[in-house]
Write a structure and sequence with these properties.
Distance between the termini: 34 Å
Number of strands: 13
Strand order of the largest sheet: 6-5-13-12-11
Length: 434
């Protein structure tokens, strides 16, 4: 819930091995001949597992299965194969030790690269694999668009210049979607504006008084802890810390952030008012049903503000929140909203009005694998999720100094989302030649 999606497509969940299969080359590249026998054998076993021809309990170690049960492994495998096709062979298997290796797996439509580790104890079952990056083969924006539109629920997408001219991809870019924690970019923009205007400094220190709930860690810090605005902003963006967010909102004031929303070129900003704190959102969605219904029934923001002013969150517990957000989507109309075009315009606005360090904060957690980071001079990221809501947003600068935006939103009020499906599509987009 309200967590930054910092997966960078790191599939420690998918213990992939070298994939060798009858009728296909054992290796198209290097390293297989120098790999230990256990590495080669487990590679073949993993291929069979990914193809549904082996039992996870026979291939995966106990520690792996404790983190990723067979059903979860099967679901992740399905996501990979739906995006990239079946695994068909080993691209490379390069030992880094007797029981560890760098591995590249050839799927029908991509090469997945990462690392593999085996238990040193016989029978040397797989204890981990990280597929850090995927290199699409014979992919196209047309195929990507079709896969986006095939997702259950509704999606929006924009990939192109920050000024909106001639985007490579634009789907429902003018339609508002629930965006989860991506709303924190508006808080960052308001703070960056005040700092550029000389009204605040990054090293200004404030006491911690506005505690929320995870994601994050600052909810566990001592009340009154002195924290700089830079630290609050960094925690808010890099790990989506909700307490850091609410503390910054308390410092800036709700009206200041709403002013930033309007000034940024947000289409019909009244539609996203009042701008909720994370604690208020948690209280509305996990508290009494009557209170949520009263809030949802308001026909204007004045009525909503009156409910927020009288909102008692003192008895709210983590257990209540976990219960409310552990199942199906809850009241997706009580959220933070933006269209792809709104987010694109926000970056235009930040370019003109925010202090440069605001962008630097976005680059702390870039949420892309190394091979894609190298294609850009700058990568900044923020994402957000809760059941039924997912947003992934990047601000990118190429090596010629041109600014781009990739933003993807996916909403489904009827079911939770397979987050990895959208994350894989994002990586496919960023992998395409420009």
């Amino acid at each position: 819930m309200l967590k930054i999606l910092a997966y960078a497509l790191v599939f420690s969940l998918i213990p992939a091995n070298a994939f060798a299969q009858e009728g296909t080359p054992a290796s198209e590249d290097t390293g297989l001949a120098t790999a230990s026998q256990p590495l080669q054998e487990r590679a073949a076993d993993a291929l069979a597992l990914l193809q549904g021809e082996a039992d996870a309990k026979d291939v995966l170690g106990a520690r792996f299965l404790a983190s990723v049960p067979p059903a979860q492994f099967a679901a992740i495998t399905q996501q990979l194969t739906s995006q990239f096709g079946a695994p068909i062979g080993i691209k490379s298997l390069e030992p880094t030790g007797e029981f560890t290796a760098n591995i590249a797996i050839r799927f029908e439509r991509a090469i997945g690269r990462g690392t593999m580790a085996l238990s040193p104890d016989a029978p040397h079952k797989i204890e981990g694999l990280l597929l850090r990056q995927f290199e699409p083969i014979d992919d196209s924006l047309a195929k990507i668009e079709a896969d986006l539109l095939a997702l259950p629920g509704k999606v929006s997408a924009y990939f192109g210049p920050v000024d909106g001219n001639n985007p490579a991809l634009s789907i429902n870019a003018g339609e508002r979607f629930a965006i989860g924690s991506t709303f924190k970019l508006y808080v960052l923009a308001a703070l960056g504006n005040d700092i550029k205007a000389g009204q605040r400094r990054w090293d200004d220190t404030v006491p911690l008084t506005a505690k929320s709930f995870p994601s994050g860690m600052m909810q566990d810090w001592p009340s009154g802890s002195p924290i700089t605005l830079h630290s609050l902003a960094s925690m808010m963006i890099s790990i989506s810390d909700n307490t850091a967010t609410d503390q910054l909102m308390a410092v800036l004031g709700r009206e200041r952030i709403e002013q930033t929303v309007a000034e940024s070129g947000f289409a019909d900003p009244a539609k996203t008012m009042p701008f909720l704190t994370t604690r208020e959102m948690f209280a509305l969605k996990s508290g009494p049903v009557e209170r949520l219904q009263a809030y949802r029934s308001q026909t204007n923001t004045r009525g909503m503000r009156e409910i927020l002013e009288g909102l008692d969150t003192s008895g709210l517990t983590t257990e209540q929140i976990n219960a409310a957000f552990s199942g199906k989507p809850v009241a997706l109309d009580v959220e933070w909203f933006a269209s792809a075009n709104d987010l694109r315009r926000l970056f235009e606005y930040m370019n003109a009005h925010s202090q440069d360090s605001a962008f630097d904060i976005m680059s702390i957690n870039q949420s892309v694998p190394a091979n894609l980071r190298e294609q850009w001079a700058f990568v900044g990221y923020k994402g957000g999720s809760e059941p039924g809501v997912l947003n992934l947003t990047w601000f990118l600068t190429d090596h010629s100094g041109n600014d781009y935006v990739l933003t993807l939103s996916w909403n489904n009020p009827d079911a939770s989302l397979e987050n990895s499906a959208l994350e894989l599509i994002a990586q496919r987009i960023l992998s395409l030649p420009r």
